[in-house]
Amino acid sequence: MTEAALQTWLVATGDTVAAGTAIAEVETEKAMVEISAEIDGVVEMLLVAEGDTAKVGEPILQWTAKAGAGQNLPEAIPAGSVARNEAGAQPDNQRIFASPIVRRLARRSGTDLRNLRGTGDGGRIVRRDLEAYLAARAVDLPVVEEPTVAKTETQVVTSEGSRIVPLTGMRRAIARRLTESKTTVPHFYLSSNCDVGRLLELRREVNETRTSRVSVNDFVVLAAARALIAVPEANVIWGGEHLVAFDSANVAVAVATDGGLLTPVVRGAEGLGVGGLSARIGDLASRARTGRLRQEELEGGSFTVSNLGMYGVDQFSAILNPPQSGILAVGTIEDRVVAVDGQAQVRPMMSVTVSWDHRAVDGAVGAQWLRAFVENIEHPLGMLI
Predict the structure, then answer these.
(1) CA distance 17 to 37
(2) Active site residue 358
(3) Fewer beta carbons below 10 Å: N end or C end of the chain?
(4) What pTM value is reported for the model?
(5) pLDDT digits over 348-364, tens only?
(6) pLDDT at residue 199 is higher than 80
(7) Torsion, CA 354, CA 358, CA 362, CA 368, rounded to 10
(8) Could you say which of 187, 242, 358, 379 is catalytic?
């Protein structure tokens, strides 16, 4: 990338900010990235307005270094301070992790995030932590509008009645990467049909015991992850002069958004269980649709699951997302007449096609993975044990 849009300032002119504090959110082609202060200092001037685009390397903020700024910080400093909190849990020079909306709410409510303990992934401070903290002190949560994903520029109507729609950064990135994939990666495809009768019954029983429902796609992602562990030769990516092998299954899940397709990665998917996996996918999908994914959540996968079954698509073949070596295309579930023990029966069937990078995965290895996947789908109870 050569430029990016500055989405949100997390500091204001005159703020004293410590090294490690997040000062702005920048929208790249596919994700939101936080920019953090590298030294203690005072914000003198914001040089780029929210929503404007700046070139990579271009100054966006005027800063005055301040000796000892990290030793005597104001009460309402945003997340990322280096001081110690009242509970003594955050050591000096250790960054505080918090979601962007929490930082804005904390600033408006005058809350020092050093005083909170995060319950999110890796101790990250999330909205419920701030809400509980303020509720205990009888302080109302301030109203902050959720930021929206940047829209395309104004469409141009031609004399012929057609429209010229400017490309977003995300659409340019998708076009570039898919063209690169289809023209430089030797794809090969393997297809199979899965009997999902047992899976649908197990899903029904699981959902009877839960307040949040798990989907068929949650089982599909889990089956794909378990198959990658069962066939480790398939759990690799192409590295040019070498292969990179993974010990865990980092599976990307395709999410359709208004701006285009995003593929956030679920790390260690094989060990989450269907309930934990469902919650993780739901969180990533929700933030993908509102443009709140972090860059690192789009990286590091070796395999993708793309499901178009909810659109009534019977079967399709997907294009690989380099450097990943495989992508599973999942079609709809429909009743079909099949032979079972020599007798014709109507069974719920699901067609799947997996695309492989032939540089990294041989045909036999791809077939072994597909067999392991189908086994997991048709005997799903084994995935829950």
Answers:
(1) 8
(2) yes
(3) C
(4) 0.69
(5) 999 999 999 999 999 99
(6) yes
(7) -10
(8) 358
